[in-house]
Amino acid sequence: MSGKMVVLGAGGLVGARLSSLIQKEETMFVSPTESVPLTKIVLFDMNEPKAVDAAVLADPRVSVQLGDLCDEATIKKLVDPEGCTHVTTIHLAALLSGYAEDNFDLGMKVNLHGTLNVMERVRALKETLGAPQIYCYVSTDYVACFNDWNKTHPVTEESFRLSPVSYGVQKACNELLISDYTRKGFMDGRVGRLSAVIGRPGFSNSISYPYTGIFTQPLEGKDYDVPLPMDIPYPCSALNNNVASLFYLATKVDGTKIGHNRVIQMPCASFTLTGIWEACQAVAKEEGVKLGTIRQVEADKGSTTVTEINVCPHVSSDKAKALGFPMDTDLKEIIRDYIKVYIKK
Q: Is residue 103 helix, strand or coil?
């Protein structure tokens, strides 16, 4: 009895930190009453995962594979048990919101057809290994429709359709399919629905980037043009807590407790740009970091494709809390972590 874990999208920030957590494990969760030795860890991405820690790559259990998420032979090889009795797949890889909005066909290829390709390969493992295998898929709260109800009521796991962006529609399709594949006994599907991950280094062409750029750029001594209104609450999540939550989803949660709807909204909190900027100034003062400045500009003068925050202002993480997920979404700690990792490195 042994286990293999596959991380799709290991080269990204969340994937790299998640890989570090996985590499520290000697055993792999199968069920609340069973764990097996973790003997193989496969990290997959399009490009060399340079963000992955050297200690992870040095582990003899770890291998890196590069390729196309949409290629059937590639994914079939990737999830091949290689003599293991259990395979857990964690699917982070995606084309993010702004890029999927810019290039509809590529978004469909990667986010919808690529995911279906992975799901079918995981589904085939049931026949090979004799039981449905764990498949953890990372989704987004962009799946929710922006309507009068959701403007005044927190979005829950029951909010699925009519996203205002193609990325959200593609993810919504996958959430429904994973729930149905699990109902049919094809897999043990688990969907971790993330809110905007703020505190990533570098630029990202996503709806949420201004909620990161407003503090990361000034902390780096740069001036930042804010292309959005300062007073709109937006659901945001902490990188470290997301990593811990996805790890928990894949390695601790009893699948029978999730229910027919396999979606779990990961812990988050809603912040305004004003609140983030105020917290940034306070933490920078505490940490002795000299800040750049910010200024308000018209939406079409910003750096991202999406120029309007037309997503729901609040989401509920009550299901995650009931299942025992870590719930750390403190804004100042998110900013402090960025300073520790990227400013005072």
A: coil
> Residues 14, 197: contact at Cβ < 8 Å?
yes
Query: What's the average model confidence in pLDDT over 225-234?
Result: 90
Helix (H, G, I), strand (E, B) or coil at 14: helix
Beta bridge partners of 189: 135
Give the tens place of pLDDT for each residue, 154-208: 888 887 666 778 888 899 899 999 999 999 999 999 999 999 899 988 887 777 8
pLDDT at 163: 77
Identify the pLDDT of residue 150: 74
Q: Which residues contact 9 (CB under 8 A, 6 or more apart)?
A: 15, 44, 45, 91, 92, 93, 94
pLDDT for 307: 58
pTM of the entire structure? Answer: 0.90
Phi, psi of 124 (to 5 degrees): -65, -25
- Residue 195's identity, in one-letter code, is S
Q: Which residues contact 157 (CB under 8 A, 6 or more apart)?
A: 193, 261, 263, 264, 265, 319
Helix 331-338 to helix 209-219 angle (10° resolution) is 50
Neighbour-count burial of 2, counting CB atoms closer than 10 A to its CB (0-12 exposed, 13-18 middle, 19+ buried): middle
Which of 241, 157, 142, 260 has its CA nearest to residue 199? 241
Tokens 């740069």 sit on residue: 222
Q: How many CA atoms lie within 13 A of 101 on its CB side?
A: 16
Q: How far apart are CA 170 and CA 178, in angstroms?
A: 13
Distance (Å, whole) CA 29 – CA 290: 45
